[in-house]
Every structure is written in structure tokens, then in C-alpha cells.
Amino acid sequence: MESNIFWNSYTFMLLVLCSGAAAYDALDPKGNITIKWDLISWTPDGYVAVVTMNNFQMYRPITSPGWTLGWTWAKNEVIWAMMGAQATDQGDCSKFRGNIPHSCEKKPAIVDLLPNTPYNQQIANCCTGGVMASMGKDPSAALSAFQISVGSAGNTNTTVKLPKNFTLVAPGGGYTCGPAKIIRPTRFVTNDGLRVTQAMMTWRVICSYSQLLASPKPTCCVSLSSFHNASITPCPSCSCGCHNSSNCVRKTPSGKGVNVRKAELQCTKHMCPINVHWHVKSNYNKYWSVKMTITNFNYRFNYTQWTLIVQHPNLNNATQVSSFSYKPLMPNLSTNDTALFYGRKSYNDVLMQAGPKGNVHSDLTLEKDGKTIALFPRRVYFNGNLCVMPSPDSYPFLPSSAGTR
């Protein structure tokens, strides 16, 4: 009965936050991934274009193994060459003699190149293995680009036909792309600032994310504890599904997992890949002291460029944050109770798969404002997905004698 209550409340919250495929996110109302094609020159049978993908989502990254972009050609176009990316399949190019196109697929699938790609195959903002940071974390790393030479396409504004049925595949899924629309040609300023050039033609595609479309089940949960209470409020049972003997990895007495090849997750009562634990370490007259721990129970997945969003009334007065990087977010100007946390480069920006190193943690000092008394967060998001919270009546009880220290 308890698990049904949590599932129903979670589903209701998702329906509110994610109505339809193009979901509205109250914390990130303008978040999307925008794909822009700039035709920079004509060729005898087509054009050369620079394709730029911008991740305008404030806290949802594209993690490893990265994005895959697809579409359907409107006519019989082929890809003669690419820089900064590649098509996964060449397709049937048997009708060509001499020069063979890079891809003859009617529905090509494009992937980013790796960071160690030779420089003569790169362009600016390419070759990160398809990984893109969120805009809130690092705007300079929230984009990806490649160059494409298209043939059999026409070489004027009136003969070129826009590709159709765009798709964006990323770890976890959940993206839906709208149709390509012609917009005002992009203008480019030279490095010396003395000359402005213009694209021959520009079109744009907008892809939106829906958590409900990405997964019918939650992907993270929250547990709570406090210094004044010996008990721990765990993640609700079956938060992300219920386990059986075949779909999760049990621990042996030595602490090592068994049957890892047959399953991905460690056996838990909540069966979530990610558990966020909020522990109140101390309560003083003027501030709270809190420890946050993120644990990865997935044996096959490292979370790169991870982000954590926490809503708590005292986060607008966070005076100290250790280990994690921190930025306040203001969904609206009247409140500032939301914070973005993420790892520090080459230190804890990768949340390793389940095991001894499968966790990261941070200590917070939250100054009290004298108006709100709240020990625990209101909502928690990991990588942009809403986490299941315990029922409020199960929170660690605050005795009247434990007001201040």
C-alpha cells in the first residue's frame, strides 16, 4: 500500500511537470537542445554546412557515451564528407564510381568524434565523445558542432529541401525533436571584428526533454537522517521498481557482487540507480550543518557531468559548500531556494559505477533566515530527473528538546 501511494504521487508530479512530449519544466522553462544548420557555401551538387547543437538546459547534461543525431533526407541526398563527427553506417553507395560518399543512408545516424581525433579532422567545439555539459554548469561546454558536405541536394535556396524526422538519442532517452524551420541566416563576425559574413541559408530544430517519456519509472530517490534521531528514513520501498532474484546483483559475504553480467543494479529495497542521502549534522542558533551523499548503485554506468538540484528554503543563505561546486538558481525572482550542485573537474565530476568509489559527498553550511525552520529539502533532482522523496510523516522526528545547540 505504501509503495502504491508513492508511485501515485510520483506519477502525479510527473504529469504536472511533464505534460506531453515537449515537457514544461518549472525550474527550467526555456530548457531545450537547439540544433542549427548554417549553409556556409554551395558546391556543384549541394552545399557545405556547419551543424551546431546547443544544450540550453540549465541542469540536464548529455552524459557519456554521448548524443546520436538522426534525420531523414527529403530527396536522395548523400553525405560526401564530414569533419568533427561521422555517420555510423555508410549504406549502399554501389551506384557511385570513383569517389565514394561518406554515407548514402536515407536515414543517417551521426555521432561525435572522440577527444583524441587528429586535428585535421576536427572543427571548433567538436570531438568530446558526444558529451555536453548543462548550460547552468558550464556554458562553454554546453555545445557541440560538426561540418557536413551534402551532395545530390540542389545548390540554391529554392532547390534545397530541409531534412525531416529529426531524432536525438542520448543516455536515458526522453528527447523529442520538432520539424526543421527556416530562420534568418546567421551572421558571423571575423576574429578581427572588421568583417561580417552571412550563411547562405539557416534552419533550426528544437528538441525537448520529457522525464515521463524517458522512463515510466523514477531513476533516483532520497533518504534522510539527522543528528537528533538514531533512525534513518530510507528511500521508499520500490521507489524505482521492485527487485526479484534475477534482475539485481546481491552482495556476497565478502562484499563482492555476483552475477554482474546478468543485471545492472545492486539489490536494494528501492531499486534506484541513484540514492541521494541528506544528513543534518548539527543545528546551531544561526545555521544548519548538512552532509549530502550521492551513491551510484549501477554496475555498468558512470555518470559524467552529473548535476544535482536541491530545493530548500535556506539554500539562498548557503555560506559554505565543500567538495561540490555550487550555483544558486532562481526559477522566479520572488524566491531563491534552489541550488545547482556539480562535481569539480578531474576530482569528482564523474560519479563512478557501483562499488567502493561509487559515491560523492559534500558538506554544507546553511545560514538560518529566522523565518523558516526546515531540516530537509522539498525536492531533489539528479541529472534533471525528479527523485522520489519519503513520505513527510516518516521524516526523522525533531524533539522539542533538540532545538538548538
Description:
The chain is mainly beta and 405 residues long. It folds into 2 domains: 25-209, Immunoglobulin-like (Sandwich); 213-402, Immunoglobulin-like (Sandwich), CATH 2.60.40. The chain is 5% helix and 36% strand. It has 2 helices and 26 strands. The strands form 6 sheets. Strands 1, 2, 4, 7, 9, 10 and 13 form a 7-stranded antiparallel beta sheet that branches. A hairpin with a 2-residue loop joins strand 25 (379-382) and strand 26 (385-386). The longest helix has 16 residues, at 2-17. The chain starts with a helix and ends in a 19-residue tail after the last strand. 40% of the residues are buried.
Brief summary of the model shown:
This protein has 405 residues and is mainly beta.
Structural class: mainly beta
Question: What's the level 1 CATH class of the largest domain?
Answer: Mainly Beta
Tally of distinct domains: 2
Question: How many β strands by DSSP?
Answer: 26
The tally of helices reads 2
Helix content: under 10%
How can the largest sheet be summarized? 7 strands, antiparallel
Approximate strand percentage:
35-45%
List the secondary-structure elements in sequence, H or E.
HEEEEEEEEEEEEEHEEEEEEEEEEEEE
